[in-house]
Amino acid sequence: MSSVRGKVAVVTGAGSGIGRQLALELARRGARLAISDVDDPGLAETAVQLRALDADVHTAHLDVRDRPAVEAYAATVAGHFGVVHQVYNNAGVAGGGRSVLDTDWAAYERTIGIDLFGVIHGTKAFLPRLIASGDGHVVNVSSLNGIMAQPSLSDYCAAKFGVRGFTETLRAEMLAGGHPVQVSVVHPGGVRTGIATAALGHAQQHGSAVTAQQQARTRTYNEKLLKMSAQQAARIVVDGVEAGRPRILVGTDAKIADLLVRLAPRLYPRVTVGLERWLFGTG
Ligand SMILES: NC(=O)c1ccc[n+]([C@@H]2O[C@H](COP(=O)([O-])OP(=O)(O)OC[C@H]3O[C@@H](n4cnc5c(N)ncnc54)[C@H](O)[C@@H]3O)[C@@H](O)[C@H]2O)c1
User: Fold this and answer.
1) What is the residue range of 251's domain?
2) Active site residues
3) How many domains are contained in the chain?
4) 69 lines ligand 1 (CB under 6 A)
């Protein structure tokens, strides 16, 4: 029997992509779900799909950057279900596309605010409840770019390396304190979702000049790099959670990046520059 059966699982950013598929995979394995997103129509669609699986679902509009809102949300979910076992801090944005010299402060604040602080907010708000459950699990979504840095992704890499450091610290603390909470960090490689297109859409909506090069970059991501289905990625993550894996690498690309960085720490930046030139004609 699945070890998530009957558990209460919280999934942020569940209105599309990996988050929606995580919620569906958890529901198929018998979990009860608290799902949230800033994208209300996307979240409503996920809820419809979950209810078609007969899942017990609680939905909420939640911006993970908003610390008081995340804290209030944790209390609401605990009040609704009476217990919370697992939190999947998944909500995220792509950011990137410009060099450090050209990245503006707003981009750093947004990407780090959502991708790193969102994870910290969700973890801290739910942690006492996960400990109280007697069988908790924190699952924080980093990236291949939480292992390997790449040119033009300084905001995203700063956030995703941060997620890894934060999560590994938490794991050590849960072990040291003898707390009944497992901790996993997830490093997906390319997964076929709308994340790259959403980043371009955000830039356009907020009046940033979107260059032809950024558009070409998004196309390359969508056509060449974001390959694995979100459903398969979600299955790998939930399998990893059920197996109690502390690090969950999703996809061959993530596994290769992990090996490259370990085996050739001095060489790997040259490899990423070469890749950048080959894929995007920049770097
Ligand atoms: N797709 C990939 O190739 C890939 C690779 C590595 C890591 N990831 C990570 O996986 C996670 C999910 O990404 P995805 O690919 O499914 O993208 P996605 O764009 O399909 O989904 C992200 C979801 O997060 C939501 N979101 C954005 N800002 C939010 C905020 N402030 N508060 C709450 N929700 C917010 C969006 O509305 C969206 O529904 C992200 O953390 C991403 O960085 C994705």
Assistant:
1) 8-280
2) 156
3) 1
4) no
